[in-house]
Description:
Largest sheet: none
CATH class: Mainly Alpha
Number of helices: 6
CATH architecture: Orthogonal Bundle
Number of domains: 1
CATH superfamily: MazG-like
Order of helices and strands: HHHHHH
Oligomer: single chain
Radius of gyration: 17 Å
Number of strands: 0
Amino acid sequence: xxxxxxxxxxxxxxxxxxxxxxxxxxxxxxxxxxxxxxxxxxxxxxxxxxxxxxxxxxxxxxxxxxxxxxxxxxxxxxxxxxxxxxxxxxxxxxxxxxxxxxxxxxxxxxxxxxxx
Length: 116
């Protein structure tokens, strides 16, 4: 399975099955899941916390570091997908709508190559 062959719906279904098999739906409310996304994002940030930009750019050269980062990123995404399941948010629609909104907010001619 890869990003090229796996749909968002399939990932959401896999998360729902994982949660249901463990009877965790009782704990998966929007507040707990949103907090879990933030906690896991903080754990992801820890891998970069004290690195300067060149060191951060080279982190992909370390298989051990990349495995840990993949796991933390997966935790973030799993909780985000669970939140989408609980709130019945169509992730693809939400992302596309946000990209349209951001395209208006950050027009190419004004923001290309700039972060402000």
